[in-house]
Amino acid sequence: xxxxxxxxxxxxxxxxxxxxxxxxxxxxxxxxxxxxxxxxxxxxxxxxxxxxxxxxxxxxxxxxxxxxxxxxxxxxxxxxxxxxxxxxxxxxxxxxxxxxxxxxxxxxxxxxxxxxxxxxxxxxxx
Length: 126
Prior knowledge:
It is a single chain. The protein is built from seven helices and no strands. By secondary structure, it is mostly helical.
């Protein structure tokens, strides 16, 4: 199996475990949620390292445009999943956007998205 196939297998297994745990014992999933959201710096650093590694491997097989096409699919699937919670999400969004400090807390992801987006637009139009 290639690294990309391992990445696909890992995420598929995580998804199945998450669905099974939530179906069987939703409250027990809170331990996972608390671990990740309770340790934001650890989560951010670990996620960044995994993102860099997976991005490097994906770029061996795909173009940045193809990766963004997959991001489009992923975004639509996330919207399908989260749209049923819109009444809960709107107050969270309102709270975050009331204060511009959210920009300083999200600086790393903002920079990453800007760089990747400019790269894609450059590939598509220039």
